[in-house]
Each structure stands twice: as C-alpha cells, then as structure tokens.
C-alpha cells in the first residue's frame, strides 16, 4: 500500500490511512511531505519499539515528481495508492497508476463554503466560523474560505469576525498563549500574500489584515501573515474560486436560501461545507443540496472515524472511514463451494 501524506496535520492525516491499512493486513510504504518528515519517522521508531515486524510499516523520504513519490506510485509491487494533497498532484498520480489499474483514494483541494442564516445562534456561528477560517493558520483542508451570511445580519457578523481576527494572539507555537502561528514555509507565505495582493487588484474591500504582522522581535524571521477578511468580490473572482490555504476568507451577503445554495455549490471543488441555522428542517434541506463529501450543521470539524470521509469533483475520489476504509484497504473475494 503506497501512502503519500501532506505537510499540514502530518501525523493525524497519516494515521487516518495507516491504521485501517494495517488492520486489513497490508504492509504500507509511507512517503511523507518533505516539509514535515519527522512524525512519520517517529511513528516508525515507536512501531519498532512496540514490536511491529520489520517491513510492515516503511518510510521513504523524498520529493514528488521524479522522486520518491512518483517512484512509489509506479512501483509494480505497490497494489494501491492513497494520497492527500493538491488536486494537480492527484491527477499526476492517476496518470502514473493508469497502466497498472491500481485503485486510488484521494483527498485533494478545496474551497469550502459556510452558510450563516439570520436565525442561527449568532455567537455559536461566529465562534464556529472563526475556527473554520483561522484554525492552524488556515492550513486545514476543511477550513472555510468562502463565508455567505444572510443580509439582515451581514454587517454585524462581518464586524464580529473582524474583532475575532484582530484579537487573535499571533506568536510562537511554543507559547501556550499563542492562538495563531506561522505558515509552513517562506514559499507558502509568498503564495498566500500573492492572493492578498490579487484580492485588492480584483477590487476587494479589506475588512481586516491583508499583510504581514510586525513583532519587533526574532518572530519577524518567521513566516507569519495576518488573519484576513475580504468582501466585495464577484463570485467569478480568482480569490473566490481558487484555494489559498491561509488564514483568510471572503465574506458575502445573500438574500434567499436558493441563492446561498447556488453560490456555495458554484465551485469545481467539493470537500466540506457548514450550515448555521436554528431551523433544523432548513439544516437538513440545505445540507442535502451541498455538493460535498461532508456537511456540518451548527458545528465544524467534528468527525466520527466510522463515517465516510472524502470529496467530490477536484476534491477527491473514494471514501475512507469505518467500513469504507475496509472496502478500500482490502478486496472482496467471492468464494463459492459446492457441497
């Protein structure tokens, strides 16, 4: 089993794949991101100390194209590939495995939406959306970068989210009081900042943020960006359509339920969505219209590992979790015996 994992939440996303694969009797070869290689290696050391036989859990380090990742997907003794990462990389892996018809399970890119109705519990929705936008400096595939708020509460909600962003304590990840740390790398910071610049060029209004914080300390050498909220962009704008993967969202008003559903679904991605309303019938109704793999109603980032997880469109293929993991990490065999 070839397992290729990303740099965000590196141990969590690794164990989601490795545990069911081993439980089904597979040996696994893990290629972690070159940005965060340590946790996969540490897990190998722990497994050896725990008595797991050599060759059951294996780690190879390297890059993707024309390196360890590509070689792993093309190896004839790798029977299946599970991958979390960018949509473009997922497409490249599909090409690599096409000749040998290996099964794949992908969790790929995203541009998740959140819909906040005027009848929602305002404080709960504000807290939940704040987490959904800014958790882990926005470097979570389930974060929300598009926030749609019903017009009667739009201004109040935007100002509440602004206060939440501006009150967050940025600092060292080693400090207990820090609420937001740096991005993964200088390269990724430049990508996020390029979208901050692009949003202004596209005509966005900056509610808050849009740049880099100043610490007047050694932290200025870190890869920090400000938590950022934009508004005023057309739904066709690149900053509304393309994955940024930082602590940023675009917030826009809507007038009808149908309009909110249409805007939320107007994307090539389809990983996650959240809906905030006190009307449970509406919650059920809207959730069933979301073209995504997982929808939360009045919550965010809750996951029962027995339930299916994955995306649609450019957000992935296949499902993992519970019986869905068993179905992927093993093969159904029909044995027929005449008595």
Describe, in short, the structure shown.
With 339 residues, the chain is of the alpha/beta class. It contains 11 helices and 13 strands.
Strand content: 15-25%
Strand sequence of the main sheet, in spatial order?
A: 8-9-10-7-6-11-12
Main beta sheet strand tally, sense and closure: 7 strands, mixed
Low-pLDDT parts are none
List the helices and strands and how they pair.
Blueprint: E1 2-4, H1 10-23, E2 28-31, H2 38-50, E3 57-59, H3 68-74, E4 81-84, H4 87-98, E5 104-107, E6 112-116, H5 122-134, E7 144-150, H6 154-167, H7 186-201, E8 205-208, E9 228-231, H8 238-241, E10 248-254, H9 257-265, E11 272-276, H10 280-287, E12 294-297, E13 316-317, H11 323-329
Parallel strand pairs: 1-2, 1-4, 2-3, 4-5, 6-7, 6-11, 7-10, 9-10, 11-12
Antiparallel strand pairs: 5-13, 8-9
Helix pairs in contact: 5-6
What does this structure look like?
There is one protein chain. The radius of gyration is 21 Å and the shape is globular. The chain has a 7-stranded mixed sheet with strand order 8-9-10-7-6-11-12, with helices on both faces. The model has no long low-confidence stretch (mean pLDDT 97). It has helices at 10-23, 38-50, 68-74, 87-98, 122-134, 154-167, 186-201, 238-241, 257-265, 280-287, 323-329, and strands at 2-4, 28-31, 57-59, 81-84, 104-107, 112-116, 144-150, 205-208, 228-231, 248-254, 272-276, 294-297, 316-317. The chain contains 11 helices and 13 strands. With 339 residues, it is α/β, with parallel strands linked by helices. The chain has 2 domains: 2-108 and 311-329, 3-Layer(aba) Sandwich (Aldehyde Dehydrogenase, Chain A, domain 1); 112-297, 3-Layer(aba) Sandwich (Aldehyde Dehydrogenase, Chain A, domain 2). 35% of the residues lie in helices and 17% in strands.
């Amino acid at each position: 089993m070839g397992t290729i994992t990303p740099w965000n939440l590196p141990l969590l996303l690794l164990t989601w794949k490795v545990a069911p694969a081993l439980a089904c009797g597979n040996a696994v070869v893990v290629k972690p991101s070159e940005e965060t290689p340590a946790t996969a290696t540490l897990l190998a050391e722990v497994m050896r100390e725990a008595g797991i036989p050599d060759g059951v859990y294996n780690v190879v380090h390297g890059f993707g194209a024309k390196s360890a990742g590509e070689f792993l997907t093309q190896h004839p003794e790798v029977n299946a590939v599970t991958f979390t990462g960018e949509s473009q990389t997922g497409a490249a892996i599909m090409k690599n495995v096409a000749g040998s018809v290996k099964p794949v399970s992908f969790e790929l890119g995203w541009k998740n939406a959140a819909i906040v109705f005027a009848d929602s519990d305002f404080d709960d929705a504000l807290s939940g959306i704040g987490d959904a936008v800014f958790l882990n400096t926005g470097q979570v595939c389930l974060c929300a970068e598009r926030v749609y708020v019903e017009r009667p509460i739009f201004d109040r909600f935007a100002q509440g989210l602004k206060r939440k962003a501006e009150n967050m304590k940025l600092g060292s990840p080693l400090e207990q009081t820090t609420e937001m740390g740096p991005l993964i790398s200088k390269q990724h910071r430049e990508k996020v900042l390029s979208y901050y610049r692009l949003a202004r060029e596209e005509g966005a209004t900056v509610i808050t943020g849009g740049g880099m914080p100043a610490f007047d300390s050694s932290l200025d050498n870190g890869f920090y960006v400000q938590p950022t909220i934009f508004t005023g962009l057309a739904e066709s704008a690149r900053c509304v359509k393309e994955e940024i993967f930082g602590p940023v969202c675009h917030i826009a008003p809507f007038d009808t339920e149908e309009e909110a559903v249409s805007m939320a679904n107007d994307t090539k991605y389809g990983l996650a969505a959240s809906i905030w309303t006190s009307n449970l019938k509406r919650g059920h109704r809207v959730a069933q219209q979301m073209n995504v793999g997982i929808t939360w109603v009045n919550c965010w980032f809750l996951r029962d590992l027995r339930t299916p997880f994955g995306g649609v469109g450019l957000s992935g293929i296949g499902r993992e979790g519970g019986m869905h993991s068993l179905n992927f990490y093993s093969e159904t065999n029909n044995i027929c015996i005449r008595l």
